[in-house]
Design brief:
Elements lengths: L8 E6 L3 H10 L5 E7 L6 H8 L4 E2 L3 H6 L6 E4 L3 H13 L3 E4 L7 E2 L2 H8 L4 E3 L3 H16 L3 E11 L5 H5 L1 H16 L3 E9 L7 E9 L4 H15 L6 E10 L2 E8 L11 H33 L1
Parallel strand pairs: 1-2, 1-4, 2-3, 4-5, 5-7, 6-7, 8-9
Antiparallel strand pairs: 8-10, 10-12, 11-12
Helix pairs in contact: 1-2, 1-10, 6-8, 6-9, 6-10
């Protein structure tokens, strides 16, 4: 495929639940990516109906649609379930497409763009951890960058029940294990714990994530300074990410809390959990597209010369 200077990479979104539908709509705002299709398993799904109304191509043939038309797509966002991703990934990777995994499958390496975006582009399977992992891993990273001895880190995320679709609910065990693994990786903590609360309150609550940690010789000033840098970086791709409680000591623990307000592309602004994982995934895909398109353009120039 030859790319013009203003070309976009064509992305397939696999999974027409809350996350996949929101992602497909968000992709329409990208300068480097085109949502070539939202793909589900039922033509009667609300997600496919919304995508069709937005002018996005749809299919109800699942991953088979992508595998039958591999030249139509450059990137696949998998927003199905962890179990489904383990089935999809080998065939998609064999087709040479970048697969960005929004399930807690842990097949590829963990990616949090504000922490390790560059390293994450060296593989064809990138795992976006979880929504709670995207909210808390940058905090864990800032904590680890300023403390050499972290005994324990715990994360409690609360999201509106209405923002959690069937796949999220069926993957709660995987959510816990994946989030805990990312916390240890990015902080260096010896132990970790993750909790997800699905809050049924009406009006719906906004996503909030609280991080607790036990560290030797806590340095609140250094941690706060590093966290300010990290938050500024996150807000480049997730504007609704804000700190509610800056680091402080409470009963011998370091505590901080963040809130994520969504842009309301599919569900209302309370669904910050959709924004934080989808905007992070798009940040990865856009950087991949930038590098790939620049490479194609450089090769085209060499041919002309």
């Amino acid at each position: 495929m030859t790319f013009a200077a203003n070309a976009k990479l064509r992305a397939a979104v696999l999974g027409s639940g809350n996350i996949g539908t929101d992602l497909a709509i968000k992709l329409q705002k990208s300068d480097r990516l085109e949502c070539a299709a939202l793909i589900g398993r039922s033509l009667g799904s609300a997600g496919l109906a919304r995508a069709q109304a937005e002018g996005i191509a749809i299919s109800a043939n699942g991953v088979d649609h992508i595998l039958a038309n591999p030249d139509d797509f450059d990137i696949v966002f998998d927003a199905t379930s962890a179990a489904s991703h383990h089935l999809h990934a080998p065939a998609l990777e064999a087709a040479g497409m970048l697969v960005i995994d929004l399930t807690p499958a842990k097949r590829g390496g963990f990616c949090v763009p504000s922490v390790n975006l560059d390293q994450s582009l060296d593989t064809l399977n990138v795992n976006m951890v979880t929504c709670g992992g995207q909210a808390s891993s940058p905090i864990a990273h800032a904590l680890g960058a300023t403390h050499a001895d972290i005994e324990y880190i715990e994360v409690v995320s609360s999201i509106a029940s209405r923002s959690a679709g069937p796949a999220t609910r069926s993957n709660l065990d995987e959510y816990i294990h994946t989030t805990e693994g990312a916390l240890r990786q990015f902080s260096g903590a010896r132990r970790s714990k993750a909790i997800l609360n699905l809050n049924p309150a009406v009006p719906c609550i906004h996503m909030q994530t609280t991080v607790f940690a036990r560290v030797a010789n806590p340095d609140i000033e250094a941690f706060t300074a590093k966290l300010r840098e990290v938050v500024a970086d996150i807000q480049r791709y997730i504007p609704g990410y804000q700190v509610l409680v800056w680091p402080k000591l409470d009963n011998g623990r370091v505590v901080t809390m963040v809130k994520v307000t969504g842009s309301g592309d599919y569900l209302p602004a309370y669904a910050g959990n959709l924004d934080i994982i989808n905007c992070a995934a798009i940040a990865v895909a856009e950087e991949y597209a930038k590098r790939r398109l620049q490479g194609e353009q450089a090769r085209a120039l060499r041919v002309v010369q």
